[in-house]
């Protein structure tokens, strides 16, 4: 499945999209770095396409019930950055801590900076869902891995930035 418009992924206010858009711009020389908040925040990221399938299965279920739709796996924002930059051939080296932390490429160019303005006042350090009930009852489970998701998002955003650098 190809994603050719920006509407197929989360908006740029979502950290995943902010990262992949920035990585795309960096790969095309349109941007040098990205500013983020808490790099240690852990999230359970999954593919929207699979989540829509899960919702459809819930609607087909005979009786109303509550389900957790999740991958059951966590990645930090820092790990997501590592995966995204790897898609453009850059390996990040992390230095410092907290708001002083930066991610540099092999040439020492700072690609990721931390800014206090992106820290949420009520930051939840870890979000992890347990999808066991959905698997047992609905036969649903996430199959797209986070590395696959990142690869797809970065490729899509590179195409978008090539055709619309102002996006």
From TrEMBL:
Keywords: Lyase. InterPro entries: GDP_Man_deHydtase, NAD(P)-bd_dom, NAD(P)-bd_dom_sf. Its cofactor is NADP(+). Signal peptide: none annotated. Pathway: Nucleotide-sugar biosynthesis; GDP-L-fucose biosynthesis via de novo pathway; GDP-L-fucose from GDP-alpha-D-mannose: step 1/2. One of its GO terms (molecular function) is GDP-mannose 4,6-dehydratase activity. One of its GO terms (biological process) is 'de novo' GDP-L-fucose biosynthetic process. Its EC number is 4.2.1.47. Gene3D superfamilies: UDP-galactose 4-epimerase, domain 1. Residues 3-153 form the NAD(P)-binding domain. The keyword Lyase applies. Belongs to the NAD(P)-dependent epimerase/dehydratase family. GDP-mannose 4,6-dehydratase subfamily. This is GDP-mannose 4,6-dehydratase. It comes from Caenorhabditis remanei. The lineage of its organism: Eukaryota, Metazoa, Ecdysozoa, Nematoda, Chromadorea.
